[in-house]
């Protein structure tokens, strides 16, 4: 049994055996010698990196060996300037590495030969046997497929600046399609296969792609989910908005399903471009767009965050190669879908030349599935979420006891939400002597502000350190630095190469207000944190109302829009308004979505329990079908009213505070139209026992079911609880 968090917080649970053998320390020594500096430790290197950005990022470029063309001063320098003004303000985002020309895919495909590059695995069949054989491709085979795919895209009319989209699983074909797209200079967008058609349409309509890659279906939780109907809805929606795709390509991922009418099959598409193993890599400006990722959409439509290719290449290379020490001998795994920024992080690991293991399916069906995969392929860096690690602990599964010496894992990376302090010693005891890298960043920068560092010790409950080149600080509401150990908001005080170019197709005002308006002169990220005396970061939660169940972030507006679009459909037509908020689990490592409904006072659902249950069933069904299973609210409650701001805007933060135990005095009633109604919110008060907690927050719930949900059970992740009701 792990120790209570209060006993382990800040305790060292792992230390590097030989700091001097790490790539991070080698980089420190190299910079110190090259620049004639005294950099005795990581803190000194970090401080220099944020006060001398031009020299630092130039040294990173050389260290990770960026392949580029364009400007050449005869001494190997491939750019005119790193920054024209080293003291440029953070807004507007400055241009970096002017004069450099490069290609993202060219840098990822630099490794050739017959060693394995990509391994594609999927969820086992319910009987335990593999549902289909794993697919392994060498570096040469991947290069050939990318070359064929790129030629086929060019034949279809795709050129630099066009959009190419995927509505597909985490598989080899999706990565090949991305690399081919990038080699041409086209801009990439991807949606997870489990997204509902409404969410996909919202994203595709924002960028108007020429090509869509999709699949026949996926396997999750022991079931095959055919994809055709969802794709048809997306195509119909695109047609209604006046967009006709130039090309639709379907990957035969599950197999045995009816091919989508009008789609070109993946293998046929590759044959159309078959030729030599040669790729004409489009040379692009460092600041050209590479991909568009979408925000969670808390206050409206998701933001189409446009990332620059040079910044992403340089930053991801720094994180994987220098911070993580990733190399050709490693095997890298990240549990993710193409709809999450961690998929881009996963693909970025190709710079190391090591095999990537791709997996599509439930991570807990059975509980051993990811660890069996780790043992089978010798995974050395295993990335997952804090919610998964908490669920694994509750399942009782012990990877170390089950697999012993078969496990080669040296790093466990955790993201999505803060990793509980007591899980750190549990990982050491149940996995092995591994670096535990809790990381933070997000879709907005598609990389990290702070995270893993193989040259530093790991302390329970802390991110190891702020990352090189990221001038991260913790400030109060006035923008003043908080003393170490104090709490405040995470900001970045100076420019960095992965600042987004903007929001595609949206005005500059929204971009400015998202990151730069809250505290002038800095990037405001919205994380509530503490910087420790050791230089680590403790993540205390989100400063805003983004929903984050299971480490998958999305905005409440994605739920509201579904309800609004179906308000004419009984019984959803009885909903007057609603508010969604996150409820933290007592274990502290995850949260669930609570949806509060204001109903018409004379409707049957407002008076009758059974009628309300039918309404809840309808709400969950429509959210699942039009968004995804991850969007489905775990609890739906009736309330008399919801808080509104003085200008009539729904105010979610007070709801979140009250749900999670804050007193009414914590809500600034002067900012609300109806402050007295805040007392209508169900509150979570101090409860030492799960049953007490259930009774206080949801007095009419079946407490046995609530206990089952909170404590979990072997072989199930938290979100699967809804299926037991």
UniProtKB/TrEMBL annotation:
One of its GO terms (biological process) is lipid metabolic process. Gene3D superfamilies: 3.30.300.30, N-terminal domain of ligase-like. The keyword Ligase applies. Residues 42-107 form the Acetyl-coenzyme A synthetase N-terminal domain. Keywords: ATP-binding, Ligase, Nucleotide-binding. This is Acetoacetate-CoA ligase. Belongs to the ATP-dependent AMP-binding enzyme family. InterPro entries: Acac_CoA_synth, ACAS_N, AMP-bd_C_sf, AMP-binding_CS, AMP-dep_synth/lig_dom, ANL_N_sf. It comes from the Eukaryota. One of its GO terms (molecular function) is ATP binding. Residues 114-495 form the AMP-dependent synthetase/ligase domain. NCBIfam families: ac_ac_CoA_syn (TIGR01217), PRK03584.1 (NF002937). It comes from Ceraceosorus guamensis.
């Amino acid at each position: 049994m792990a120790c209570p968090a209060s006993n382990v917080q800040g305790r060292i649970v792992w230390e590097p055996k030989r700091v001097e053998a790490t790539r991070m320390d080698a980089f420190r020594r190299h910079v110190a010698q090259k620049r004639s500096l005294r950099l005795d430790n990581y803190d000194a290197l970090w401080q220099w990196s944020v006060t001398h950005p031009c020299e630092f990022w130039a040294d990173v470029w050389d260290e990770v060996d960026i392949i580029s063309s364009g400007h050449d001063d005869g001494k190997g320098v491939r750019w005119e300037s790193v920054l024209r003004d080293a003291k440029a303000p953070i807004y507007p985002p400055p241009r970096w590495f002017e004069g450099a020309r490069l290609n993202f895919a060219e840098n990822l495909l630099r490794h050739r030969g017959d060693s394995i590059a990509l391994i594609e695995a999927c969820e086992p069949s319910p009987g335990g046997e593999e549902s289909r054989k794993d697919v392994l491709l060498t570096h040469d085979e991947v290069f050939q497929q990318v070359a064929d795919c790129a030629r086929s895209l060019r034949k279809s009319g795709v050129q630099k600046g066009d959009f190419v989209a995927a509505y597909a699983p985490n598989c080899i074909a999706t990565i090949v399609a991305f690399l081919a797209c990038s080699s041409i200079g086209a801009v990439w967008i991807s949606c997870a296969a489990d997204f509902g058609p409404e969410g996909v349409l919202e994203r595709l309509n924002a960028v108007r792609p020429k090509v869509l890659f999709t699949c026949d279906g996926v396997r999750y939780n022991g079931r095959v989910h055919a994809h055709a109907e969802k794709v048809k809805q997306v195509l119909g929606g695109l047609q209604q908005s006046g967009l006709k795709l130039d090309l639709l390509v379907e990957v035969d991922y599950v197999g045995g399903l009816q091919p989508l009418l009008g789609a070109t099959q993946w293998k046929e598409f590759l044959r159309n471009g078959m030729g030599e193993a040669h790729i004409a890599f489009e040379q692009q400006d460092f600041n050209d767009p590479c991909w568009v990722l979408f925000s969670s959409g808390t206050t409206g439509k998701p933001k189409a965050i446009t990332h620059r290719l040079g910044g992403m290449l340089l930053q991801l290379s720094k994180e994987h190669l220098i911070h993580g020490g990733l190399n050709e001998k490693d095997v890298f795994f990240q549990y993710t879908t193409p709809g999450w920024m961690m998929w881009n992080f996963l693909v970025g690991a190709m710079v190391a030349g090591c095999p990537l293991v791709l997996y599509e399916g439930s991570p807990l069906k059975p509980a051993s599935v990811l660890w069996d995969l780790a043992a089978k392929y010798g995974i050395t860096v295993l990335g997952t979420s804090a919610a998964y690690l908490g669920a694994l602990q509750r399942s009782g599964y012990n990877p170390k006891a089950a697999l012993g010496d078969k496990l080669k894992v040296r790093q466990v990376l955790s993201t999505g939400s803060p990793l509980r302090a007591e899980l750190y010693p549990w990982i050491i005891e149940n996995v092995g002597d591994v670096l535990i890298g809790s990381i933070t960043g997000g879709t907005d920068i598609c990389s990290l502000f702070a995270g893993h560092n193989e040259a530093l010790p790991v302390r329970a409950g802390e991110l190891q350190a702020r990352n090189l080149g990221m001038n991260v600080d913790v400030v109060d509401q006035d923008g003043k630095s908080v003393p170490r150990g104090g709490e405040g908001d995470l900001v970045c005080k100076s420019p960095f190469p992965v600042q987004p170019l903007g929001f595609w197709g949206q005005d500059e005002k929204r971009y400015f207000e998202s990151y730069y308006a809250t505290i002038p002169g800095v990037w405001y990220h919205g994380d509530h944190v503490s910087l420790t005396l050791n230089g680590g970061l403790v993540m205390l939660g989100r400063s805003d109302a983004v929903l984050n169940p299971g480490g998958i972030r999305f905005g409440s507006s994605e739920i509201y829009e579904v309800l609004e679009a179906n308000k004419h459909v009984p019984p959803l037509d009885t909903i007057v308004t609603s508010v969604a908020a996150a409820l933290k689990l007592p274990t502290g490592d995850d949260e669930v979505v609570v949806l509060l409904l204001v109903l018409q006072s004379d409707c049957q659902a407002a008076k009758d329990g059974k009628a309300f249950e039918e309404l809840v069933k309808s709400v969950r069904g429509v959210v699942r079908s039009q968004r995804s299973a991850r969007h489905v609210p775990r609890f739906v409650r009736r309330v008399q009213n919801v808080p509104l701001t003085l200008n009539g805007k729904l105010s979610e933060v007070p709801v979140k505070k009250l749900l999670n135990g804050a007193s009414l005095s914590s809500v600034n009633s002067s900012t609300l139209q109806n402050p007295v109604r805040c007392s209508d919110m169900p509150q979570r008060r101090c409860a030492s026992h799960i049953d007490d907690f259930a009774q206080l927050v949801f007095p009419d719930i079946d407490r046995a079911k609530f206990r089952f949900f909170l404590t979990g059970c072997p072989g199930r992740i938290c979100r699967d609880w809804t299926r037991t009701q």
